[in-house]
């Protein structure tokens, strides 16, 4: 192995957020050497050796906390697709699990995105392959992250298509998996190519506001550290979070480009040992700074559907300014940055849950990981228990691949702003904005939706076309003789509900 190759391999080891045993390091080295030989002589559009892309993908996976087999699959992910190795050779050399992961990624790369029909079929295959094992998605996201970092070498028309696809599919998928570290990067790499004029406008706003905002943050940071020390709190750390350009752009659109209504271009983040101290810190901050009404959000008590937990508050600084503060534990921070990936990185030879997953966790990421580690064998066989229901459902709905409705379904059901509402027993139901009690009913259970006769929100009767709001407690009234009404199709928002209503109506006619 040359010094350059040794340095590349060491870069992968150094990027890892988990420790490797000698055998695990040897597996990564074996995959590294196999891929280097297999892709020898191949070049990228930039003129660089193709192997550099594979190393970068492996580094991205290591930074996400992936373990040896996933990193090895990242190094090997193009070997079969490029025809430089056979599936049989991979399985013989690296075993069935790595061969399975490579096969999943290969399936995603076989179709080129040309034309709406083929584009939809490609996306369908993406989700079908992904629905077999969540690690396939993470490898594909790591691969796309490096491709986006070198997109300037691609011809302009292809560049715009790849960037659009990344912005509309891959970045939102990373967000839904809770991997904000990836989603932010994918968004901001794509934004200039998809919306160049809007990008320039946002960049100018950030340039104008950032210096002033950072000065306020520094001042508040010093003050809060002093107040916490006075209350004998010393085991904490602070950092600054600057909002991504594309995330800011979406917020500016919602605020009709009124920059005075944007308070979180940058935020101060406080990380403490446990959840109890999160609330203690919040109390100390509010004793010394007046909080802005309506801007206190407790995502610890009520996590976001992707598992995100933190307390947010916006305070008046006393000099006419406003600063957003986020308070969380170290585990919450790792989860916010790496989502599902943060769980998959833990060694689980016993099949037991890692220490950072609570059995009381009701977010879909938490449930997903509980199921994954409860039945590791099923996960390795590609059982769809390794992914959330929304992904498996999307992969299985194959009746509309010939039209634009599939892409629309992605945007409407999974990649738009979400709300979470509650059953009377406190179960969280994740829905797109604009959803109604009918959408809620079908999400709870098909039978509940099929026999819906009425609904209550907060204990009060409401019409079935009422738009649900974040935090609503919804109760569905059912009757044995009740059945779907054709009028429901005029106001339901989720494709899941629409599909089941149409199915019920068609059975009525036969």
Explain this structure.
With 510 residues, this protein is α+β, with helices and mostly antiparallel strands. 54% of the residues lie in helices and 10% in strands. It has helices at residues 3-15, 22-38, 51-63, 68-76, 87-94, 96-109, 116-130, 134-149, 156-176, 180-194, 196-230, 245-254, 275-288, 330-344, 364-374, 376-380, 389-396, 405-414, 437-444, 446-450, 495-509, and strands at residues 237-242, 266-272, 297-298, 311-316, 322-329, 418-422, 428-432, 452-457, 460-462, 474-478. Helix 19 (437-444) packs across helix 21. The longest helix has 35 residues, at 196-230. The model is unreliable at 111-116, 346-386 and 398-403 (pLDDT under 50).
Question: What is the global morphology?
Answer: globular
Number of discrete helical segments: 21
Provide the residue-averaged pLDDT: 81
- In percent terms, what proportion of residues is strand? 5-15%
Task: Give the N-to-C terminal Cα separation.
Answer: 70 Å
Helix content: 40-55%
- Extract low-pLDDT stretches: 111-116, 346-386, 398-403
CATH homologous superfamily assignment of the largest domain: Hypothetical protein af1432
Task: Tell me the CATH topology of the largest domain.
Answer: Hypothetical protein af1432
